Amino acid sequence: MRDVRGDFPFLEAHPQLAFLDSAASTQKPWPVIDAMASFQAAAYANVHRGAYRLSQVATTAYENARSTVAGFIGVADPEELVFTRGTTTGLNLVAAGITDLLDTGDSVVVTEMEHHANLIPWQRATKRSGAELRVVGLTPDHRLDMAGLASRVDESTKVVAVTGMSNVLGTKPDLPAISALAGAFGAATIVDGAQLVPHSPVDVAGLGIDAIAFGAHKMLGPTGIGALWMRRSLAESIEPFETGGEMIREVTLTDATWAPIPAKFEAGTPPITEAVGFATAIDYLSGLGMTEVSAHEAGLTELALERLADDVDGVTVFGPPVGPDRGGVISFAVDGVHAHDVATILDEHGVAV
Ligand code: PMP
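Above: inputs. Below: predicted complex with 4'-deoxy-4'-aminopyridoxal-5'-phosphate.
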């Protein structure tokens, strides 16, 4: 892969820094910074509502961004792609919508490795609807317990909510196997793609899933924008998360009907400049090639895991060993030293974790 360091002004500004916190949020390359600055400076206008030419140009930029993001995950119909505030909002949107469809006697299956963003919305969905929340555990090597999953999914199951890659363990659950299991019982597979989409090629059709949420800021784009893809049938069957301007078809003082997707889920003025930045980040990643990005990361992960195990005494590394189901997030503990102290000491040596 070509040397990309020079594309990141943050790294130039901090030449001694080893920035190892991209799982939390990534730095931005020049193309993203430039695209957002020039759009904001000379092309900014509200979208979808203005009759003047520049509003239409901004609308085209916003809708082109939707097509770019959709194409990045293999979605043929950009209308199925909703811009959100981020992964958290996307998962809340889909969980809130599905809550109305749940009933006593139904079940929702989550896993023990979920981020709060893909756990709490389902806790609330099941509490509010009276459905049962079932939790799948892990194997001793920190993979998803597939036998445990198989024993928890049955005719009552409406949703299997699972991460594409654990932000703690680096584990990448087998999404095609999970969606096949869920689909056999008519359950929807809802994926937290926050750590998956930035790091490997994703094709939603090949994964067999029904929805995936991810955010721009973990993939070289800005904060404040993310995307939620839902299969059209799911998107059309749920109620919108937020209501207000832009999402209505017809309105009277006492009633309203919803616009078709994706507008139905995009109440209010959307993050327009951020959409331009998001699409530019995706163009940048696509220019590198996600297969190359993923292969480069696999090499770095292998090296880091080897060095941690061999060179540092008293370190325990969590997550599965190197392999295709092991992403680049690495968690470790140092015997007798609190994690905060490890991070502070590393920071003093110019390593941000
Ligand atoms: N899911 C996973 C796996 C994550 O790593 C994160 C971010 N730490 C989130 C969800 C939430 O993303 P955001 O805070 O950008 O909404």
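The chain has a mean pLDDT of 97.
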